[in-house]
Design goal:
The protein has helices at residues 10-13, 23-40, 67-80. It is mainly alpha-helical and 81 residues long. The chain is flat and about 35 Å long.
Length: 81
């Protein structure tokens, strides 16, 4: 789960500006990461929580969910199980 999505509003992108490499590089890295998961892990063994990606109100920063975001991840995992 991440805020690093292509259409993230500028105000929310500013929460991610403290990195030493560009926002666009993060987008490419996450795309590669998810592609690797799709290739290496059988689909039935993956719990996809990407539905919370880009939902700024669920995150403390670019990748760490706040309590509400953690509850949403927990709900997605519980539903998948």
């Amino acid at each position: 789960a991440t805020l690093m999505v292509p259409d993230l509003p500028q105000a929310d992108r500013e929460r991610c500006d403290h990195f030493s490499f560009p926002y666009e590089a993060h987008l490419q890295a996450y795309d590669a990461y998810w592609g690797m998961i799709d290739q290496e892990v059988p689909a039935g063994r993956v719990i996809d929580v990407r539905s919370i990606n880009g939902r700024a109100g669920l995150f403390n920063d670019h990748v760490h969910p706040n309590p509400t975001g953690a509850q949403e991840v927990a709900r997605l995992v519980a539903d998948a199980l």
